[in-house]
Amino acid sequence: MDFSRLLQANQNHQGLLITAGVLILSVAAFALGRSSNPHRLEKSIVSPRETLLPKLSQQEQSDLPYPPDVLPGATDVASPYGSLRVYEWGPVGGKKVLLVHGISTPCISLGGVAHRLVDAGYRVMLMDLWGRGYSDVPTALPHDTRLDTTAILLALASSPLSWTGELSTFSLIGYSLGGGIAVSFLSYFPTLVSSLILIAPAGLVREYHITTFNKFLYSSGFLPDRLLEWGAKKRLKAGPLKKPVTVKNEEQSHVNDTTTPVAGELPRAGIGEVDGASMSRSRPHVNVAKAVSWQVDNHHGFIKAFMSSLRFGPITGQHEDWRRVGQRLAVQNTTGDQTCKEEGVQHGQVLIICGRDDLIILKDELEEDAADTLGVGNFRLEVIDAGHDLPITKSEDVVRHIRNFWKEQ
Predict the structure, then answer these.
(1) Distant-in-sequence, close-in-space partners of 358: CB < 8 Å, separation ≥ 6
(2) Cα 111 from chain centroid (whole Å)
(3) Phi, psi (deg, nearest 5) at residue 324
(4) The pLDDT of residue 259 is above 70
(5) Is residue 320 a contact partner of residue 166, using CB atoms and an 8 Å limit?
(6) Mean per-residue pLDDT for 209-233?
(7) How many CB atoms lie within 10 A of CB 371?
(8) What does the alpha-carbon distance between residue 326 and residue 344 come to, in Å, rounded to a whole number?
(9) Measured between alpha carbons, how far is 74 from 299 in angstroms, rounded to an integer?
(10) What order of strands is seen across the sheet that includes strand 123-127?
């Protein structure tokens, strides 16, 4: 018997077994890694539309602090990012207006403004931004202007009517964080938008307003996300600030902290939430503070979305986008080119509306920074006796300024 050949065959057989074993272990480890990675298992964190509503009767749904039919024309838009809740209603032939809300509230914060515009003959569209209200939360993606722009484009595409295309444009209204989102959108899609209205807009908030502590606190990597989310949840549940802290100069950090937009979007303590026009005509029991509290308790992805918006959203440092809009306005207002005028925003100006008592978006700083970025003469500033909650508490005044601006055009 040739023992050398037998030994060689045995060694080859063992080598094949080892190779096969390693391959099987590698495949198993890869599969285990995929199954244990939550971001691979779920593309999005679903909203209460799937986690809560199926458990409730129709009456129980109607009684919710944020009912699914809080505004007319609700639709849920399926996408690779998750489901996006959109509301659209108003005269089919009316001029079209898209409204984008702020960082902490669902779109009901602009319900009063939207209803008044519809009363005046406009067609309106609102959406719950990702992670708010009944919209899902895309996982493993930063909540920056890229993701927000995608939400706007999905909402526009969901309409049975044409919002874009030849001879079809729309007015864009952005409130707080939504103001920063709106400016960014216009800077990249200038021919889609006929008019830009900014209500207490974020985007140019000066860095000194954010304390060193809060820059540390809300920067990812320094503290566990679960701990940060717990702190944010506690602050959101606390409701409106009763005694905001003011400052005298830039050496001191201005009011509150990076969660201040949360408090600012909630009507101030002791002040009525609406000024005669309910935010929801069909569900008059709805108010912003309770809707936000419900959202915190029932939307499992809201806090993650909120924290991501704080870190990556257009709150500060958006000067490039604003300047891009300003440059286009300057060309529109100085050139005789008819195409440029037709494709530019009407009146060659941006309307900015702010609250005289707003402790988040300061009037003087906003005016100075808008002049620096948009250019003097390229915007109009209107001031209302209100705080950062002006579209909620003073929707009639807000709409009056908007309609007057449009009438002049």
Answers:
(1) 200, 264, 386, 387, 388, 390
(2) 15
(3) -65, -40
(4) no
(5) no
(6) 71
(7) 15
(8) 11
(9) 18
(10) 74-77, 84-89, 123-127, 96-100, 170-175, 193-199, 350-355, 379-384
